[in-house]
Design a protein that fits this description.
single chain, mainly alpha, 3 helices
């Protein structure tokens, strides 16, 4: 049985996975989505784990 990482790598190499990656790159080229991603990352970095 393949591990989760192996299954993820196989999916990303497949045509469907490549299509999803290309769509994500296209969306992240938009400035409004870049700003949204920056806000999300800064919010996640600010959280403390107890």
């Amino acid at each position: 049985m393949a591990t989760l990482m192996q299954r993820l790598q196989m999916f990303l190499r497949s045509p469907r996975g490549q299509r999803i990656v290309d769509q994500g790159r296209h969306q992240m080229a938009k400035p409004e989505n870049q700003a949204r991603a920056r806000r999300l990352f800064s919010k996640l970095q600010g959280r403390k784990r107890y």
